[in-house]
Amino acid sequence: MQKNQKNLLIIDDEGSITKGLHELLNEIADKIFIASNGQEALDLLKKHPIHCIVSDIMMPQMDGVQLIKKVRESNNNVPFIFYTGIGNQELMLEASKYGAFDFLNKPNLIGLEECVARGLQTGIGEDPAAQANHDENISEYKKLLEQISKKKS
Amino acid sequence: MAEHKYKTEVALDGKDAQLKIYNNQFFCILLDLDTTHYSALEVLRYIRLTSPQVKIVLTIKDKETYHQMGLSEADLFRFGVSELLIGPYSMGQLKTSIEGNNPFGSWKTFKKNDLEYDDESEFQLSDDKFTRINIKEFYCGNTAIFDFYLRLTPNKYLKILYQGDSFSASRLKHYKDDKKVEFLYFKTKDRGLYINFINDTLSKMISKKSVPVQKKLDLTKNLVEKYVEEINVSGLQPQLLNEGKKICNNVYKMIQVNTDLYKVLRAFQEEEPNTYPHIFLTTIFAGVICKNTDWVGSSVAEKISFACMLHNIGLMKLPESIRLKNINDLNLEQKILYKEHTYHGVQMLKNYREISEGTRQIVYQHHELINGEGYPMGLTNIKIYPPAKIVALASYFAEFIQQLRCTPLIGLNKFIPNEKISGGFDPAYIRALVLGFTK
Questions:
Q1: Residues in chain A closer than 8 A to B386 (CB atoms)
Q2: Which of B53, B350, B435 is opposite residue A89, by nearest beta carbon?
Q3: Residues of chain A positioned with their CB less than 8 A from the CB of B45
Q4: E-only strand ranges, B178-298
Q5: For the residues B230-243, what does the mean pLDDT come to?
Q6: Bridge-partner residues for B122, per DSSP?
Q7: With bands split at pLDDT 50, 70 and 90, how would you rate the model's confidence at B377?
Q8: Strands (DSSP E) found in B162-208
Q9: Contact, B229 vs B191, CB < 8 A?
């Protein structure tokens, strides 16, 4: 496997959706894994490094909340992007407890590509916002503030 | 369609349609359910994956057609249809499906009065039927879009401008300077028209360098105030939600386009503390953070901006004795109730197709702090939805300077060194906020 290869996992019990998402996200991720249910997803997560997950929240047997809970229990903070239709919004609130990366609406999935690209970056540890040294940031904005105050006076 | 000034492309089958959608950008797609050579449902799926924002009007011969396919109306909406048009339908119905029914936009068809009137008539009308607007912030273009009044005494009004009258700047100046009038009044039922009118005006003036940024901001502030008032009275009507999205779009463009905005931001509240309402300040500060944050694109920025406008909507569910007070002035029991406003908010926004799940989550998480001391869930940094961190900072900082009755610059100088407070927020976003005050 190449260094910094970005692996994406798509989970949905509807084959037509995973197929469509695969086509759409093919150029953003280096490798895409498909799972049709939560258990398959957990198995794939054990076997492969996954840097971002795109998942339906409502699935038979194991829904998105149960899945993210299990993933977090294994100390895996992989970014989860959930999508939902109207009517499953309570599940989205539940999912947020476990730190979901983003939430999108079916059927439009507006902003999905942008969101997956950033999710993969975060998952692989290249997210500039996540990497920034907080102390450096604080001293930088203190300096900025001093500059503004000086200019003003 | 061409006769009605629409620019159209025609596709004769589903395959041709997909090709045209691939090569062009459309505002709206009229798709017939009987489409062949790639069915309508296949084309629908293709559109939703490739052009998610486009409006899709699905035309259907009659209800039997989709019932025979084993589909319900709900299924079609679930597949991504924006509007259903079941035959036979008129041109008017088709146009309404394409453009939406927009009574707020009815001011556009008002005719200008040929004669100029300067008569003033007194009316005995209840105060609760009126909305006021500061005369300094008043803007009505060349023609009055509805009647305007002065308030003489409680429940007594003087009509000074009739709908369709030419707007006379000198007359307004006379009221402002000679008669020392502070507020103009219009009927609350016209507030939707006003919101639509100002939204339209703003979108036209936002990129114009000849219009001072301060004027654009004042108009936006006024618009946001009236918008919130209207939501509080009328609730979350779909049309009002669309106006909210237009406001967000205007705010986004204003922050992106006006490079000298920082000068005005520095002077916020300099002359008069607490001039600006909390929601307006939150929306502007969040917009500034978005502009200075690399990963935030226009769709995320608009989602954030919309959440800013709605972030405190859950407070409406709380009694006035709690909602109108500062949280620090509440007792323990009241504080617990107050903190439920995020949950009330997210529940109120449920089941609105116009409100994205992301916006709802921001409303739910806008009091979460990265040190885990926030609410409702006490999430820590990595678990907080990133756009919610931006709104949390913007909202906190707006409240902070309002309480101190100071300018944002003075506020930042107090906020940043206080690590007990600023430690609750992502330093990257604090930095992005500070950058908003630099050239």
A1: 101, 129
A2: B350
A3: 16, 20
A4: 183-187
A5: 83
A6: B158
A7: very high
A8: 183-187
A9: yes
B61-64, Cβ contacts within 8 angstroms, sequence gap of 24 or more? B61/B33, B61/B34, B61/B87, B62/B86, B62/B87
Q: A79-115 burial by CB neighbour count: b if 16+ within 10 A, else e?
A: bbbbbbeeebbebbbbbbbbbbbbbbbbbbbbbbebb
The one-letter code for the residue type at A152 is K
Nearest to B196 by CA among B282, B265, B317, B100: B100
Q: Which domains does chain B have, with CATH numbers?
A: 2-101 (3.40.50.2300), 111-191 (no CATH), 206-435 (1.10.3210.10)
Note whether A93 contacts B346, CB cutoff 8 Å: yes
Facing residue for B435 by CB, picked from A93, A128, A144: A144
- Tell me which chain A residue has its CA closest to the CA of residue B433: A141
CATH of the domain at A138: 3.40.50.2300
Measure the CA–CA gap between B130 and B195, rounded to whole angstroms: 15
Q: What is the pTM of this model?
A: 0.80
Condensed to tens digits (0 to 9), the pLDDT of residues B314-340 reads 999 999 888 888 888 899 999 999 999
Domain ranges, residue A40: 7-152
Q: Dump pLDDT digits (tens) for B14-73.
A: 999 999 988 888 878 999 999 999 999 999 988 888 777 788 999 998 888 888 888 888
Any CB–CB contact under 8 A between A104 and chain B?
A: yes
Q: Does A23 touch chain B (CB under 8 A)?
A: yes
- Whether the complex's predicted ipTM is more than 0.90 is answered with no
Range 374-403 of B in CB contact (< 8 A) with A:
377, 379, 382-386
Residues 219-278, chain B, touching A (beta carbon < 8 A) = 266
What is the mean pLDDT, run by run of 10 residues, along chain A of 153 residues? 82 92 93 96 96 94 94 94 84 93 85 92 71 63 74 57
- Token representation of residue A54: 């795109």
- Total residues belonging to chain A: 153
pLDDT of residue A153: 53
Question: Distance, in angstroms, between B27 CA and closest chain A CA?
Answer: 15
CB neighbours of B27 closer than 8 A, spacing ≥ 6? B54, B55
What is the spatial distance between Cα B92 and Cα A58, in angstroms, rounded to a whole number? Answer: 39
